[in-house]
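Recall that a protein's primary structure is simply its ordered list of amino acids. Everything else, from secondary elements to tertiary packing, is in principle encoded there. The following example makes that idea concrete.
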Amino acid sequence: MHNLGDALREAVENMTSSPSEDYYCPICKNLVPKKIVMLLGKEKTVQPRCSCEVAAHEKEVQAMEDRKAQAEIERKFQHAALGQRFLTYTFENFGNRPGSERAVDIARKYAQKFNPKNGLSLLMWGEPGNGKSHLAGAIYHSVKGHGFISVFQSMPELLGRIRSTFRNQSKESEYEIMDAVLKCDLLILDDIGAEKISDWVVEVIFRIIDGRYRDKKPILFTTNFTPTELLNRFMPEKPTVEQEIAAKRIHDRILEMSVIVENKSSSYRREVANERARRLIEE
């Protein structure tokens, strides 16, 4: 059975275009020799296309397939579903606060140099509310603006979404969700470590991380836990040997894949809340 490339090449090469005249490739401008083939026991002169044209046609077909895949992934993971606040997450409106300078610098460079095929991932950690999700959102919008397929999903929400496919009337399947998170150019897993751990949860997380690790596809992780603490988040309070090994496999993959950066700024949300309380008292 022919694959797509073989089928296209065969179809294109057997096209004829005025076999009696010389044919020059419109791309490389070289003369393309005619071929004599046997058809039903008779010789027939055909004019094949140049390999340049065949390659260009295959590239065009592949681009169409990629656009189709992108549309399908974006249909499943509409960023609008994350809320209106998410739509405003950009580098331009991120307040450069003390302690966040290095995280902002690395996030900008990661977005600017993003390569979906080098497997370089990013792990941003720090206390809750200090802007990690904002920076992840800024990377998302930057990468998407350059034509890459990106998926942004909090880890607890993604697990809940997969779990909901087990219902009889679910509008999507586990395969469809997993296919999207494994194939997108950049997967952003926000708030990893916040999920409630079970053997099923560990299995799903490992499938996602290991699947992208093997294909050298990058992941952006954000977490409220230190890299060391994160290991303990993947195992129950009294883990069996098997559960400890499973947790270490996930943790090792994350550390091997990722550039690790701490956002050292304090909680922006807490500062806003304190300021709101101060104003209320003074009024």
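The radius of gyration is 26 Å. The longest helix spans residues 51-76.
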